[in-house]
Amino acid sequence: MQKRKFIMGDDAMALGAIEAGVKVVTGYPGTPATEILEVIAKERPDLYVEWSSNEKVATEVAMGASLANMRTLAVMKHNGTNVATDMIMHFAFTGVKGGYVLVSADDPGANSSQNEEDTRILLHTYGHLPILDPASPEEAKEMMKNAFDLSEKTGSAYVLRPVMRVCHARAIIEEGESTAPDREPSFEPDRSRFVMSAVNEPKAGGKMRPMWRHELLNAKQEEYKEISEKSPFNWIEEGKGRTGFIGCGIGFAYIKEAFSHLDLNLPILKIGTLPLPPQKVRQFLKGLERVVVVEEIEPVVERMIKEICFEDGLKVEVLGREKFLPAEGELNTQIVLDAISKLGIKELPEEFKPFDKPKMPIRTRTQCVGCSHRSLLNAMKEVTRKYKGIVTGDIGCHDAGSFPPIELQSTIYCMGASIPMAAGLASTGLDRPVVAMIGDSTFFHMGLPGLVSASYNGANITVVIGENGTTAMTGFQPHAGSGVDVRENEVPKISIEAVAKAVGATVRTVNPYNIAETKKALEEAIKEKGVSVVVAKAPCFLRNSKSDQLFFTPRAVEVDVDRCNGCKICINDFGCPSLRYMDGKVSIDKATCVMCGMCADVCKRGAIV
Amino acid sequence: MKLDIIIAGVGGQGNLLASVALANYAMNKGLEVFGTETIGAAQRGGSVISHMRISDKKIYSPLVPQGSADILLGFEPVEAVRNIHFLSPKGKFIINNYPIPTVLCNMGMDQYPSEEEILNILRSRSPQGYVIDASEKAKEMGTLMMTNVIMLGALTGIEPFFDKQEMQIIIAELLPQKVLKNNLLAYEEGYKMITDSNAGLVTA
Ligand SMILES: Cc1ncc(C[n+]2csc(CCOP(=O)(O)OP(=O)(O)O)c2C)c(N)n1
């Protein structure tokens, strides 16, 4: 990297971790923070970097590295933090050795997530871990470096919680000094710390060890507060008036922006840490009548401020996302401007007045032209329609099969849920076949325990695994079934078929570009008792379209307009974006068609040839 | 000075290269640059909005506030209108007249607005802009992929901050050698679309 570069927040955090001397980096993709891991893998071939099979595994590998006294980083988003929670709740109790930074990226507005969460609650309010919450890419880089130092100083993991807008902002970032410690890996057991077990602890006069560790964790909170008090990421900006604004993380940026448009000079408290710096907060509240807390997403700091006011008997009105600001979604400057206007502080100029956005057609996500999931979903739709089947879905590129036009999957929850939910539906004695649809990365992430459980419990389900060899939805990260590691080095490829067989399922493998073959396998699987796995194997087209290992023979297809009766089967059951429907006829957009020829196989009238 | 630019399009249209070019241009001038992308779906076919902010003062938010964009570059008409609230009433727009229908429009479940409707909304927000056939031109010159450089060429035609020659150097640094020549020709065409004739000019 150059000295000054226009880069993403993620790249900036990667740079921070490298400057801090990180040695081991783990994570699971599909997060606003994915690029942190990818950039480190690319920039520093000498460091150990892995895509773990899921986030819990990632936090555990990182813990192992920390025990060897090395600096370690685990990268995930809120859903992943949920998955890793069990481990996180344990290392919160034991503490760490080598600096351990957990990046838990939140996605306010859920621009690319299936739900919206504020992991500050999980990690701080519930897990009692200290958190750094950056306001900008620049600050995120500094916080990353600081978090490693603080982690070693306190002996606890530190959380860096960038929101999507910090991860995906681009800014001019400067390289900095190395703060890397100079040391070799070493290991010394310390069982009273690193053995979490319900046992009487001699060091604590025979108290139960978990309770003793809990006491130590609670005692740590004072130390974290001391650190917050002196932290360069919290400060007060003096101003005029009796209304103050508290900006947490990126909330600070929107306050500053809004004030600059209105030439306002109200007092601001900038907050970048949890726990809060209690003295600084008290100093700020002095003389104020009212404060507005601007934070993403939940009213976390707002409630802490209320608690301080309550404890001190302060009559300060505390406004925030609990009642005053929108309670869901991403913040922006406009929301702060509206708040200022609502409080009667200043009238908004014309351009900031409420604006009725014109209604435009929405763009639903769909599979790419040429994607093998589309013909697979088509085959599944035909077969499940015939047998009145129910399809439970999972997350991945195929999940767009649950939207119009295809509308196949009836459920999407968290990763891996398709298989147990199918088993649950089937367990009721419902007289309809139940099919789970899951991608290969998701299968290795959390699908596997569900499959084991279904097989063990004699579930009567079909499990379709779309094996495209990659984590496609999130940008082609390799996984345990890809045969390559994070740096594209060849590694053993774990066979889904072999795993499914070992679990006791029957297994059929099909080429999803062969719709007839796929339908036949699905019909057989549905009629069979027990767990039947259908592996639909074809490489991700978007990724492989330039190679010559295509799984279909290219066919230039045309619509025979005399034969097309506008039945729209090709659109409603297949829905390729290269198909156009106008004036009762279908046509093919040659500019985007990749000649997979699947639409010709889908058409019942032989009108696409 | 400050210049806020919104680039609205759909995945695969090359928004990102365009915003990096703008950023590099401003950085070379020693200015502050801050921006972000909102990617509706991390996949092809979803809406993609880039916010690019240039200023000689510190910029706090990567997001352009409502009503503050000096320029709206619409790589796709519906996406441009969807983001019209960002455009300042004093701002200018350049729209690529190349509708990409949505899946639902294709199915006949949704109606893609007419050119007239789109123009009316654009006019109601800002008195000045251009509608140009950037993608048609790109296709004619060999590939749709050059839509972005044509739009950049057009931008240098309406915004004096961007010098045509200097911007060309920046673009050349970002493109692979083997497509460079054709892209620079396309860039030139984009510039001409604004300056040669007023065919695409839309006024209120
Ligand atoms: C716990 C958790 N981690 C990460 C993600 C982000 N994510 C969404 S889909 C997906 C995986 C998709 O890969 P795969 O199952 O192989 O399906 P494909 O997209 O390749 O068809 C991931 C990681 C998530 N939703 N939840």
Supply the key terms:
heterodimer, A: 609 residues, alpha/beta, Rossmann fold, 16% strand, B: 204 residues, 8 helices
Please write out the topology.
The complex is a heterodimer of chains A (609) and B (204).
Chain A: E1 4-8, H1 9-19, E2 24-27, H2 34-43, E3 48-51, H3 55-67, E4 72-77, H4 78-94, E5 100-105, H5 119-126, E6 131-132, H6 137-154, E7 158-160, H7 164-167, E8 169-174, H8 191-194, E9 200-201, E10 207-208, H9 209-230, E11 235-237, E12 243-248, H10 251-262, E13 268-271, E14 273-274, H11 278-285, E15 290-294, H12 300-312, E16 317-319, H13 333-342, H14 372-387, E17 390-392, H15 418-427, E18 434-439, H16 440-456, E19 461-467, H17 496-503, E20 506-510, H18 515-527, E21 531-537, H19 541-544, H20 569-572, E22 579-582, E23 585-588, H21 598-602
Parallel strand pairs in A: 2-3, 2-4, 4-5, 5-7, 6-7, 12-13, 12-15, 15-16, 17-18, 18-19, 19-21, 20-21
Antiparallel strand pairs in A: 1-8, 6-14, 9-10, 11-13, 22-23
Helix pairs in contact in A: 1-2, 1-6, 3-4, 10-13, 14-18, 15-16
Chain B: E1 2-10, H1 15-28, E2 32-39, E3 47-55, E4 69-74, H2 77-82, E5 87-96, H3 103-106, H4 115-125, E6 128-132, H5 134-140, H6 147-158, H7 164-174, H8 177-195, E7 201-203
Parallel strand pairs in B: 1-4, 4-5, 5-6
Antiparallel strand pairs in B: 1-3, 2-3, 6-7
Bound molecules: thiamine diphosphate.
